[in-house]
Amino acid sequence: MTPLSRSGTWYLFDYGMVLSTQPEPADWAALERETGMQLAAASSPYWRHREDYDAGTHTPAEYWTRVLGTPVSAEQLQVLEDLDAKQWSHLNPDTMAVLETLSGEGAQLALLSNMPARMSARYLQESPWAAYFARTYFSGQLGMIKPDRRIFVHVLDELGAAPEDVVFIDDNVRNIEASRALGLQTVHFGPRTDLRRELAG
Questions:
Q1: pLDDT by residue (tens digit) across 117-153?
Q2: Residues 129, 131, 134, 136: is their CA dihedral positive or negative?
Q3: How many other β-carbons are positioned within 10 Å of the β-carbon of residue 62?
Q4: Residue ranges of domains in the chain, CATH in brackets
Q5: What are residue 91's phi and psi, to 5 degrees?
Q6: pLDDT, average across residues 10-27
Q7: Using an 8 Å Cβ cutoff, are 31 and 87 in contact?
Q8: Which one has a higher pLDDT value, 1 or 196?
Q9: Measured CA distances, 20 to 13, 70, 127 (Å)
Q10: 131 contacts: CB under 8 Å, gap ≥ 6
Q11: Which end of the chain is more exposed for a tag (fewer CB within 10 A), N or C?
Q12: Neighbouring C-beta atoms of residue 198, cutoff 10 Å
């Protein structure tokens, strides 16, 4: 079988909608029961304030206060954070199979995700996918967010890698364009992407 990985290359994965799938209807329904609000729509306050939350500008309490329009108690905040982490925890089995293959080949694996700091800390402690990655980078911990070129420069510096020696896999076209402008190899990931074929090619 032809190897997927190439020597000297870093494979840099996004998390949401690449490692993970989109939240399921039951997940959004659980948030609606807790908040009394429908939050799945792109125009909802869940999404309107999300970039600032991912970038570390807002604490969890500040974010959910903005989403709900009213202060949240410590008890409600814990419930909301648990529900939010759960809905993004569903893993894409095809991506996980590719990760297992790459890991078995000894590939250099890293992850770069826009994610709140406390959620990323939870996942690193609890999630099975974390063991695949030699390096992990999260916007909430870095205070920078994709597609800001600074976050890609930071990752390249940390990896000690030339841009052409990194394959970046992400679902967001803005992130793909920003990384490609710096010289990274890219795979624009979508529902029909055959990642195994893309990497082998």
A1: 999 999 999 999 999 999 999 999 999 999 999 999 9
A2: positive
A3: 15
A4: 10-21+91-200 (3.40.50.1000), 25-87 (no CATH)
A5: -95, 145
A6: 98
A7: yes
A8: 196
A9: 11, 30, 11
A10: none
A11: N
A12: 16
